[in-house]
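Support request from a user on the community tier.

User writes: "When I paste my structure tokens into the form, the page sometimes reloads and wipes my input. The last time it worked, I copied everything first. Here is what I submitted, just in case something in the input itself triggers the reload:"
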């Protein structure tokens, strides 16, 4: 019921009071005329609301952030009484509200088909579909809605991947592991196996060969390629809702893009996600990228740890780390100092700062990091470049 309905009730009460006090028939006529309008209005709304049928097609289960879903709607109803419009309430991925309304006007017993674009501005997993029907009469007295009864479909909006430079890591970029291996006896074999075609004679274990009367070969542990550690900042972002979502998208997309570049270059990738429910994603081949994509699409920015604490935890576990990519929308002196500690421990570090305005003191810290051979890049969260 709208404000007009309550105004009409006041008018009806006034007409009835005047008619009873004066006995004038014109007041009774107006009273019953308005009552008929009231009854016709509610009848038209209810008739339309419970006979309307809406079909929605074109939803895809997975899209990329920034894409638009082209949907096709078919609307039909059998109400002979006129209404102002039929409103379709959609559940849709949106930065401001989880619902959108589409207004449709169609004559009875006729199908109306139209297209509608649903924007997907932010990453995440959403339920999309028709939630409710809303109908309003011609006079604006009643606005009644009901549930559609249709099942909502799950639509995953994946972060967008863009091209980034590979963080080139050499075998000697093994961080602390290089120093630990310096004291190892390289002449000690890790295992012994039977001789295979192509083995060199200097690897043959002659004493064991004479004992077993078959060629036995020493095998040595080969160092694998250094890992790349990608650490996104998952602490809560102090900004307006839409701005925070855009910054979250930028952080996830930078982390995903660098994971893709490193995997395609043959470097194993580890990505700790220290949110309220911590997890760690690890992969060695490009085929493992969907694991990173799915995790970054669903991760929440509710970490109880400050980013400096996360960096400190990473400093304790970089035994096999050759490169580290830090992604954050915050850039403080403590974050810069932790990046320097990582670099001085033998790890190749890249810092990605998500910001649209760089402070003068922050730019000075950026130059200081670059002088220490730390790669630093700035990413505008409101730009797709």
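"...and here is what came back when it finally went through:"
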């Amino acid at each position: 019921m709208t404000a007009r309905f309550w105004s009409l009730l006041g008018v009806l009460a006034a007409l009835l009071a005047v008619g009873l006090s004066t006995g004038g028939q014109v007041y009774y006529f107006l009273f019953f005329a308005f009552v008929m309008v009231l009854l016709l209005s509610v009848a038209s709304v209810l008739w339309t609301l419970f006979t309307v049928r809406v079909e929605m097609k074109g939803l895809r289960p997975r899209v990329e952030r920034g894409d638009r879903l082209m949907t096709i709607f078919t609307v039909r109803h059998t109400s002979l009484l006129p209404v102002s419009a039929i409103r379709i309430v959609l559940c849709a991925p949106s930065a401001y509200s989880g619902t959108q309304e589409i207004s449709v006007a169609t004559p009875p017993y006729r199908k109306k088909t139209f297209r509608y674009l649903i924007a997907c501005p932010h990453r995440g997993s959403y339920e999309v579909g028709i939630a409710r029907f809303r109908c309003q009469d011609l006079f604006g007295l009643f606005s009644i809605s009901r549930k559609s009864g249709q099942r909502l479909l799950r639509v995953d909006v994946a972060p967008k991947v863009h091209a980034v430079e590979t963080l080139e890591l050499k075998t000697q970029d093994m961080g602390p592991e290089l120093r630990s291996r310096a004291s190892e006896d390289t002449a000690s074999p890790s295992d012994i196996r039977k001789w295979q075609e192509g083995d060199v004679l200097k690897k043959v274990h002659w004493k064991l060969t004479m004992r077993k009367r078959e060629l036995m070969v020493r095998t040595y542990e080969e160092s694998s390629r250094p890992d790349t550690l990608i650490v996104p900042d998952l602490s809560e972002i102090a900004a307006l809702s839409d701005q925070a979502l855009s910054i979250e998208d930028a952080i996830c997309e930078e982390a995903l893009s660098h994971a893709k570049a490193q995997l395609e270059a043959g470097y194993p990738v580890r990505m700790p996600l220290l949110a309220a429910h911590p997890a760690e994603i690890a992969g060695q081949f490009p085929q493992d990228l969907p694991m990173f994509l799915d995790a970054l699409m669903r991760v929440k920015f509710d970490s109880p740890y400050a980013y400096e604490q996360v960096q400190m935890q990473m400093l304790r576990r970089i035994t096999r780390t050759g490169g580290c990519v830090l992604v954050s929308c915050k850039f403080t002196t403590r974050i810069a100092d932790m990046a320097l500690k990582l670099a001085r421990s033998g790890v190749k570090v890249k810092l990605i700062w998500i910001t649209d305005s760089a402070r003068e003191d922050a730019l000075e810290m950026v130059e200081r990091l670059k002088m220490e051979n730390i790669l630093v890049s700035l990413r505008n969260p409101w730009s797709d470049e």
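Agent notes: The reload is a front-end session timeout and is unrelated to the input. The first helix runs from residue 3 to 22. Residues 68 and 119 are 5 Å apart (CA to CA). Escalated to web team.
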